[in-house]
Amino acid sequence: MPSPATLAALRAFVEERDWDQFHSPENLAKSISIESGELLECFQWGSDFDQTRVEEELADVVTYCIHLANRIGVDLDEIVLRKLESTREKYPVDQARGRKVKYTQLAAERAGDAERDAQG
User: Fold this and answer.
1) pTM for the whole thing?
2) What is the pLDDT of residues 3-57, one digit of tens each?
3) Rounded CA gap, 14 and 23, in Å?
4) From CA 104, how far away is CA 5, in angstroms rounded?
5) Could you state, in order of their start, the residue ranges of all structural domains in the chain?
6) pLDDT (tens digit, 9 = 90+) per residue, 51-97?
7) Residues 6+ apart with CB under 8 A from 69
8) Which ranges of the chain does DSSP label H, i.e. alpha helix?
9) Quick one: which of 93, 86, 76 has its CA closest to 6?
10) Does 1-74 carry CATH code 3.40.50.720?
């Protein structure tokens, strides 16, 4: 997650320009989507990409995510770790390792295994 120095620099940048007034959660979410599209555009025509441009667009996405988290009063470390825990439950290692399937398919497989075990 961003260091305290990075967070302070972002806050100072916004304060110096009096831009916080424009940073509603809605506007920040829109900006994340817009900047994500610009990041995706870097890969539009293939896997070759301009490293510098990708870094710039990624920085824009992350910056807006940080601003949104700050605006709605959440701790990024906390919400990321909480989401990671719920994702762990959806994708158990014994089922998901090395597979690119959606969690709903894994849940269906678990249900099928449980049904077979019950019939057993």
Assistant:
1) 0.85
2) 999 999 999 999 999 999 999 999 999 999 999 999 999 999 999 999 999 999 9
3) 9
4) 40
5) 1-74, 76-120
6) 999 999 999 999 999 999 999 999 999 999 999 999 999 999 999 99
7) 75, 76, 79
8) 4-17, 25-41, 51-72, 76-90, 93-96, 103-119
9) 76
10) no
